[in-house]
Amino acid sequence: xxxxxxxxxxxxxxxxxxxxxxxxxxxxxxxxxxxxxxxxxxxxxxxxxxxxxxxxxxxxxxxxxxxxxxxxxxxxxxxxxxxxxxxxxxxxxxxxxxxxxxxxxxxxxxxxxxxxxxxxxxxxxxxxxxxxxxxxxxxxxxxxxxxxxxxxxxxxxxxxxxxxxxxxxxxxxxxxxxxxxxxxxxxx
Length: 188
Known about the structure:
The chain is an alpha/beta fold. It has one domain (6-178): 3-Layer(aba) Sandwich (Rossmann fold). Helix content is 29%, strand content 21%. The chain is built from six helices and eleven strands. It has helices spanning 18-30, 83-86, 92-102, 114-119, 134-142, 167-178, and strands at residues 6-10, 34-39, 45-46, 52-53, 57-58, 74-77, 106-110, 125-127, 145-147, 152-155, 158-161. Strands 5-2-1-6-7-11-10 form a seven-stranded mixed beta sheet, sandwiched between helices. Strands 3-4 form a two-stranded antiparallel ribbon. The longest helix has 13 residues, at 18-30.
């Protein structure tokens, strides 16, 4: 398939949201894109519902994945309870996001991973995210980002989703972005 998009999926080292990962993988596969999934350890991890997933490799090697050269067309963060421990404080993920955002690529996060975008300064105004996690809500308040009523929000080339039971909404919005139904717009 010519001009297939390349997508980087970043997930927590453990306790990733299986619903979010499934919605992201379906969107990417349906858009005909290739993907690589990375975590901090690169080892098999348990999801929040007990399922297992083996990432392709480690986040630190994001730019050394076989068959993937240059920038990814999108960087997508998957949440889950483990995002708080392994993604919120990760020093490499914000650098990856900044690099891709400046290049006009899509950056997206779902569930508790939205806090990574808030901490890195990619969100302004409103963003979607979990409505029932006090730590997440405190992160959004610190970043001066209001929680949107909508399950998915888009600002330029940044996409955020509530996650959990609304992960499919995020997946559909991601599919529209990857398939070119909406354009990313220039980074601000």
